Amino acid sequence: MEKKNLRYSINASAISRYANRNFDLCLRHLPISSGQQFFLLRIYENPGIPLNGLAQMGFFDKGTVSRGVQKLEEAGYITVITDENDRRCRKLFVTPAAAPIIETLLNAREEWNCALTEGMTDEECLLINKLMKQMVQNAQTYIAKKEEEVTCNKEH
User: Fold this and answer.
1) Residue 80: beta bridge partners?
2) Mean pLDDT (whole number) for 4-16
3) Which InterPro entries does its entry note (predicted)?
4) pLDDT tens string 35-79
5) In what order do the strands lie in the sheet with 90-94?
6) What are phi and psi of 59, to 5 degrees?
7) Which of 13, 81, 104, 139 has the most Cβ atoms closer than 10 angstroms to its Cβ?
8) What is the maximal distance between C-alpha atoms in the chain?
9) Are 98 and 77 contacting, i.e. CB atoms less than 8 angstroms apart?
10) What pLDDT does 116 receive?
11) How far is CA 92 from CA 39, 44, 69, 106, in A?
12) Collapsing DSSP states into helix, strand and coil, what is residue 144?
């Protein structure tokens, strides 16, 4: 099989766009968008996560995370607490006001995962998850090497 004819990026991109559409439909009656749902769920699942941890977890740049967090904070769904030992470190926590939205998000995520794996066996679900994690790791390694090459070329 020729790897060049496989369309991994197109398929991954399509799934991502459909996931965003799904969350937008599920959240249409709530004051939050698909772009913010990732941040809110990760903060809920990781109380006290710092901004940079949230960025790393979602492979986002810090500016994107800062804007998303700011919107959630302004809406009253999260609180940002500055670390006592390191004033540069800001820890994130959900507020009670976020509870109904989080419940909606968790249900939407479960329904979406069921839709994605429709017709697959448990073994196939585990395999696709394992393979996708490997592809993410491969992408991270590849980009890190590319960024290092660019940095080295700028220095010379």
Assistant:
1) 92
2) 87
3) HTH_MarR-typ (IPR000835), Tscrpt_reg_MarR-type_CS (IPR023187), WH-like_DNA-bd_sf (IPR036388), WH_DNA-bd_sf (IPR036390)
4) 899 999 999 999 999 998 999 888 888 899 999 999 999 999 999
5) 49-50, 90-94, 78-82
6) 60, 40
7) 104
8) 56
9) yes
10) 97
11) 10, 9, 9, 19
12) helix
Secondary element (H or E) of residue 67 = helix 62-74
Specify the DSSP element, H or E, that contains 49. Answer: strand 49-50
CB 112 within 8 A of CB 22: yes
Chain-centroid distance of CA 17 in Å reads 13
Q: In sequence order, what are the beta bridge partners of 79?
A: 93
pLDDT higher than 80, residue 90: yes
Say which residues have a Cβ less than 8 Å from residue 19's Cβ, sequence separation at least 6: 34, 112
Per-residue pLDDT of 135-149, as tens digits, reads: 999 999 999 999 888
CB within 8 Å of 81: residues ≥ 6 apart: 90, 91, 92, 93
What is the rounded radius of gyration, in angstroms, for the C-alpha atoms of the chain?
18
CA dist 153 and 81 (Å) reads 40
Torsion, Cα 142 145 150 154, to 10 degrees, reads: 170
Q: Of 105, 38, 93, which is closest to residue 65 (Cα–Cα)?
A: 38
